[in-house]
Sequence to fold (186 residues):
Amino acid sequence: MRLTEAALKPRCCCLINEALFMTVKTLNDLFIHDLSDVYSAEKQIARALPKMARAASDENLVAAFNQHLEETRGQIERLDELVEATPEVKIKRMKCHALEGLAEEAQEIIESVEKGEVRDQGLIGAAQKVEHYEIATYGTLQALALKLGYTKAAKLLALTLEEEKQTDVKLTTLAQAISTVEGAAK
Fold:
């Protein structure tokens, strides 16, 4: 199988079009790009979490999704605060296609797996994929903010990064707690 030239062309997963990627020439441009990407991701997460909570059967998982929704809303507010505190930064309108794909995976689990433990485990896995994406993104953004001298932004990003790490640990704990022999056999 031969790869076409288009398949070999570097592509950013979170851009509206290639022209936007071409504007990334400096670390500040990259910071703005990644910040815009995660802003879109957080908005998508805020829309997906209520669906995931309704689809879950374990009451602790439902509570965790609802709690994370509130946390996500706070993270969006924190991103707004970051932009207000950093005049050099203006978020661009874009769509995070990586998160869009992860949200589609969660929706496929909801639609194709019967409600119960197996679906709950699938939803936890889908949520952890999102958390890992966010951990990577917020870690990169924090490092860029420090390099660019955006001290307040770096502190705000560190808070969110820590929240994402804690959510990942909570999800792992939930996955272990709701695991049963019956669910493993199915």
User: Anything to note?
Assistant: The CA atoms of residues 21 and 30 lie 9 Å apart. Residues 1-17 have pLDDT under 50 and may be disordered.
